[in-house]
Amino acid sequence: MRIARFTTGDDPRFALVQQEGDRTYLAVLGGDPLYMPAMPTGERIELGDGVRLLAPVIPRSKVVAVGKNYADHAKEMGGEVPAAPLLFFKPNTAVVGPDDPVVLPEFTREVSYEAELAVVISKVCKDVEPEDVRRYVLGYTVANDVTARDAQRTDGQWARAKGFDTSCPLGPWIDTDLNPEDVAVRSRVNGELKQDGRTSDMVFDVSFLVSYISRAMTLLPGDVILTGTPAGVGRIDHGDRVECEVEGIGVLANPVFRRA
């Protein structure tokens, strides 16, 4: 099952994504599937002109991200693989959706893309064992952990570098049936392939990460976990278009914009 959040110009709504040949339809739901069963209203809308996909979830409390969770990425950044997951936060104000612009802040001149698999939590999750994690996961989506690399180097901690507005694109929807153990994670800039990794190369897998994080802090419905990025990160600038893809979910695309 795929769950989208969308608008046709009015308040955001949720829908099940239905594919019929080369056409995509949205079967509108009666409420937020995080808090109630996914009950179609009977309304069905074709995805196209007049329909705008939004970030499939706006985290109620937090986005927890994991750094250096692929050995090849740790190496390209000049660091070692951490002995335990390296955690940091992105505020929910960083979240944007498909086709929303990534707006480069004035304080940075070196911004990077990072394609990632994202986990969406479905219910209160605390001190959960790895083997029980799936019961607490609504599904998975695609993320771009946009990073001001120069600020990351100079600030000593990552709040500004990874938490600025529009630095956390999510989308295009949530897939509830994905097996996250071995799927491709890719990025493209202006159509050119930049990253091409697999989740099986993660240092710490999804179940371990959710369990580990839940032992430190309570995860709430709608919280999102970014699971790390493979090697191949690089710079983006005004006028670029970034595509992040997770096999089995789809493509999240965003233009890059810098205000004059």
TrEMBL record:
Keyword Metal-binding: yes
GO molecular function annotation: hydrolase activity
Classification via InterPro entries: Fumarylacetoacetase-like_C, Fumarylacetoacetase_C_sf, Rv2993c-like_N
Sorted UniProt keywords: Hydrolase, Metal-binding
Residues in Rv2993c-like N-terminal domain copies: 1-56
Hydrolase keyword on record: yes
Residue stretches making up the Fumarylacetoacetase-like C-terminal domain: 62-256
Protein name per UniProt: Fumarylacetoacetate hydrolase family protein
Native species: Isoptericola hypogeus
